[in-house]
Sequence to fold (915 residues):
Amino acid sequence: MTDSFTVSSSGAERRRARIRAGLGRRHLFERIFRGLGVLAILIALALVGSLFWMVISKGYPAFTQANLETEVYFDPDIIKVDPPPQQQPGQSAADFRAQRLAWQRQVTMSNWNRVVEQAVRAAVPPGLEITAREATALVDAGERHRLRDIFVENPGLLGERLPFTMLASADVDNWLKGTIDRDLPDERQQLSPATRALADQLLESGAIQFKFAWHIFTNVDSRSAPASAGLAGGLVGSLYMMLVVVLLAVPIGVASAIYLEEFAPKNRLTDLIEVNINNLAAVPSIVFGLFGAAVFIKYIGLPLSAPIVGGLVLTLMTLPTIIIATRSSLRAVPPSLRQAALGLGASRTQMVFHHVLPVTLPGILTATIIGVAQALGETAPLLLIGMNAFVAAVPGTPFDQSTALPAQIYLWQGNENRNFFEARTSAAIMVLLTLMITMNAIAVLLRQRLERLK
Amino acid sequence: MGNLVIAAALLLLLGFAYQQGFARSLSLAAEARKEGRRLHSRPRYHGTLVAIWVLLPTLLVLGLWALLETSALRALIVGMLPPEVAGLEGRQLDSAIARIRALASGYGVAGEVADYEQAAAEHLSLIQNLAFLLVLAAAAGLGLLALFAAKRRISLALRARDHVEKAVRILLMLCSAVAILTTAGIVLSLFNESIRFFSFVNPIDFFFGEIWNPGFATTGSAAIGRYGLLPLLWGTVMVAVIAMLVALPVGLMTAIYLSQYAPHKVRTVVKPVIEILAGIPTIVYGFFALVTVGPFLSALGAAIGLDIRSTSALTAGMVMGIMLIPFISSLSDDILRQVPLALRDGSLGLGATQSETIRRVLLPAALPGIVGAFLLAVSRAIGETMIVVMAAGNSPVLRLNPAEPVSTVTVTIVNQLTGDSDFAGPQSLVGFALGLTLFAITLLLNILALFIVRRFREQYD
Fold:
């Protein structure tokens, strides 16, 4: 009886009871919801972590490579060549070049494999029998070209002995680093048992040493000699492209931002331009690649695989980023500054160039660096303008055939020698990410420094 | 060498023009001061104006020459060749011309030099030098004429500053036209090549075809192959759906936690770290998918008895989802922070828990913005290339199972067009039709998203 009395007497009490009854459930739900938020963040952080862990753990070993310390003998019995030609008075440059090329061909025709083989044998401990093929399999195939180039540079070496450090072949590098399963049966190993045993012995005796692989930065890509493949071509190609981007995208982007923000009358046309720029920022990068292929290469006739074309395409892609960022930093300039300038009799142009623009400089600089960093990593449009072609040369000008850093990564990840090139690709990614992170850090630092100056 | 000379001469001329205008206006001003009158503009504006007037005609002459030089000299050489050589075609004619150019430049050529070659080369080098001097003289002459005309116009009343500012404004306007030109160029070039593609293949077969089998360009134009868009579109949609299934929950919850729950310190550390993901190039994600995620999923599938291929829609979709997490989270974060605080405080004041406030008040209020962010993310997923090229497996077949390889529109563009530049057959032209489809889809999504986001902003601004 009393129960029913209290319930009916106080509706507030009843409501409170109902609320209290539901409270536990609601608080539980609150905790679950909050837990889900933490979980989401942990997942995101774990993904960042595992991505970097993957790249660094795979790429780090590629920066050291096995090298064989030995001695090279430029044996006159193997290298049978005439003395190099001298330019005769009255001989045309073209004729001399032809003669010199003929001599170089003669040098190239010598059996450099034998020279390499003998050099390897010089390091082999006595009593070990290996065939010529097994000996040359120990070192990188590019070494014979390197020896030849050294000889062409300095023909006086004929008959001389020279202490020489040779790069071990990719297979030996894999074997010694354990990137290939050492327990695989012979028929599935790349190297013969004798070469494998020799590699182990040489490592133990100190003739083979792991050294920092500087050639990753100084060599160009190579198919026949994977161990000496490097990024130089890609680095210089990317550098040229970034140069084009900075020289074109920054002035054009800043100028159009100034026009749209400060001068343009507010009408249909400027509305259209604005919508247009926002859309351009969201157009898939591969569409820019199609545009580059159709317009720059087919109609204008610029060369395929050239950094100038890549730079132009990336410029068009970076423009919206720079325009949008510059506009927002122009918008952030306090109106008092403009009014003060105008009030003292400055024209609009003077107001913009003398007063507003200097204040927005940090913002523009940051936007530029971030835009360029983005462009540096862009790959898809480069595939369509032929930047993923195999080019084993450092481009001399932006009009030469070249590869680019991300295109080189794409090429390497597709290489059949997965064991070796997985590490090499990760190393290239490390170089790319380091460049991008450095650029972004510079942007942040610059902004802080400049804003403090203000 | 020649270009350097021209550039140096041009700079000298411009400097001279500036100095002339400057000096003239200065002397005018000095005379006028005696009568108590003043120049309208400062001397440096007069100098700049004269320089601009000099620059325009010289640039015109030099530009014309740059355009015409190659073809004019080529015609000249061909005219000097004996008929049996001039009648050659293509490569051979090119090499004959290259020989004469090399001779004329003084570098020489390898091998015997024919008499006619020597004569032509001497003639060519003479003409080249003459033409160079002539162009230089014409440009300089026109420039000087313009200089004197512009200098004579200088007077006290000449509003030089207004003229210069107008020139600056025109230059700025031309720069902002580049963006429009780019869009127009993209649309025109895609249309142009697509129309050529549709002269080979019926548009209905393309848009509604269920079989993708383009054949190879090398087998000749007889083997046109079949170009059904649907398998590619299906692959694209599947990958995008998987990506959004990963990115939306993680990205949205991250944004909610960071904007509503996280202490300031956690926020300042976690937000930039997650945004690192946004700056990583997509090729790195592709490699991540290929090397880590694919094998992981495949092993996971084997452990629970599922056959998951390591390159599949699932792999590509998941990694693309990872790529989109920061995109979704930072956009949603911004949008959640734009919801007026009064809404949140009102709800909390009425006794709702934080999660209830978020679900019942903040999210509904922010919904349009979040939908906009979602659409932008979808558009990025559809246009993304490198991840799918490396991790989706490239198998353009209509299949329901996400654990099997698929192919997408972007992958196919790359496959059909890589390294090709003559775009003669449907095999390569189809890339442009696919590009046009992609452009249209992403454009619609972007416009829709921007429209929704803008409406949302106006609601609370």
